[in-house]
Write a structure and sequence with these properties.
9% of the residues lie in helices and 45% in strands. The protein has 148 residues and is mostly beta strands.
Length: 148
């Protein structure tokens, strides 16, 4: 089954997508992550959207693929000048399975205070007791605040 989530975030903002269950036996994997500027062609912006396993405080435009908490990253530019080729998009996501809440962050690297839409598709599936325990323990080990 596919679950979808969407929203709009301003520069430096974060949204929590609630996925965790009491037993953690529902697993998720990212199938799609898209970014669309709030005002396509209307404002100069360079959005960096990311999906994390933990809150990203503060939300920033730095992408670090060595970060074990990073599940997905996307970049989209939206320039109004004739010298730019509008709406170049790069999206990269991990095939990692998770069973906890995730966090979508947005940052406008162009320094403006614009908004960007995000769209996330997650594949859901049932996890065995062992797989759920391993996923939860891995998240707790990497992020002590997950178990709090």
């Amino acid at each position: 089954m596919i679950k979808t989530f969407r929203g709009i975030l301003g520069d430096g903002k974060e949204a929590r997508i609630r996925l965790s269950t009491k037993q953690g036996k529902i697993g998720y994997k990212i199938v799609k992550f898209d970014l669309i500027p709030g005002k396509p062609g209307g404002d100069d912006s360079e959005f960096v959207g990311k999906i994390y396993k933990v809150p990203d405080q503060p939300a920033n435009a730095t992408i670090d693929f060595s970060d074990g908490n990073l599940l997905a990253a996307g970049y989209i530019n939206n320039h109004t000048g004739a010298s730019y080729y509008n709406l170049a998009t790069i999206i990269v996501f991990d095939q990692e399975v998770f069973n906890q809440d995730i966090y979508v962050t947005m940052n406008d690297g162009a320094g403006a205070d614009n908004e960007c839409n995000y769209y996330v598709e997650l594949e859901t599936f049932s996890m065995t007791d062992n797989a759920a325990a391993v996923s939860t323990l891995r998240d707790i080990r990497l992020n002590p605040q997950v178990g709090a």
